[in-house]
Amino acid sequence: MFDRLSFPQPWLSWILFLTWQILSDGVTGGSVVLGLILAWLIPQLTHGFWPERPGFTRPWRMPIYILRVLKDIVVASFSVAWLILSPRSPRPAFISYPLQLEHPLAISILASTISLTPGTVSADVSDDNKTLLIHALDATNDQEVIDTIYNSYEKPLMEMFR
Questions:
Q1: Is 134:95 a contact under the CB 8 Å cutoff?
Q2: What is the per-residue pLDDT for 161?
Q3: Cα distance between the two ends of the chain
Q4: Angstrom distance (rounded) from CA 127 to CA 124
Q5: Where are the beta strands (DSSP E) in 2-157?
Q6: What is the pLDDT of residue 4?
Q7: Do 138 and 92 contact (CB within 8 A), yes or no?
Q8: pLDDT score for 52
Q9: Distance between CA atoms of residues 114 and 120, nearest Å
Q10: Which of 62, 97, 126, 142 could disulfide-link to 131, CB 3.0 to 4.6 Å?
Q11: pTM score, two decimals?
Q12: Residues facing residue 120 across a β-bridge
C-alpha cells in the first residue's frame, strides 16, 4: 500500500509542485493541496515512460548549473546580436562533439542546454550516444567550441550524474 503512495520520481514531483506554486495566484492552502496532488499523480501516470530513475549523485549542483546556463544565454545573446549587426560574416560550422556522458537524461540536458544558448543548436545524437552533432553560428575553431562546451556544460553534468 505504501508503495503506491510513494513518489516514483521525487525530483519531478518537486519541480511540478514548485512550478504549480509559481503559476498559482499566490500560495494558499488549496494551491498547496492541489500542487501535492499533481506532484504525486503526474509521476504515477507517467511512470512507465521513465526507463530508470535519474542517476543524480550531486543534485545540489543543479542550481549552480542553471545559473551558469542563464548567464551564458545572456552573454551569447549579446554576442549573436553583435555578430549580426557587425559587417563581419559569421563562419557557420557543423561540429561533431564527442560525448563522455553516458546517462540518457544527462545527454538530453546537454543537448537542450546547447540549443538554448544562442548561436548553437544540437542537431543530432548518434545511435550509440557517443557523438553529438552541433551547429555553431560562428566557429573559427572546432576544438575551441568542443572545449568550451565540455568545460562549461558536460563536465558539470558528469559531476551531477553517475
A1: yes
A2: 81
A3: 31
A4: 9
A5: 93-98, 120-125, 131-136
A6: 53
A7: yes
A8: 64
A9: 6
A10: 126
A11: 0.70
A12: 136
Residue 6: what pLDDT? Answer: 76
Quick one: 107 exposed, middle or buried, by C-beta within 10 A (0-12, 13-18, 19+)?
A: buried
Residue 97: all three cell numbers together:
562533439
What are the residues whose beta carbons fall under 8 Å from the beta carbon of 41, sequence distance 6 or more?
none
**E strand or H helix at 72:** helix 62-85
Residue 94, strand partner residues: 135
Alpha-carbon span 6 to 21, nearest angstrom: 21
DSSP single-letter state for residue 151: I
Name residue 78's amino acid: F
Dig out the grid coordinates for 1 from the structure.
500500500
Low-confidence ranges of the chain (pLDDT < 50): 1-2
Q: State the Cα–Cα distance between residues 95 and 100, nearest whole angstrom.
A: 15
The x, y and z cell numbers of residue 38, run together, are 499533481
Whole-number pLDDT of residue 132? 95
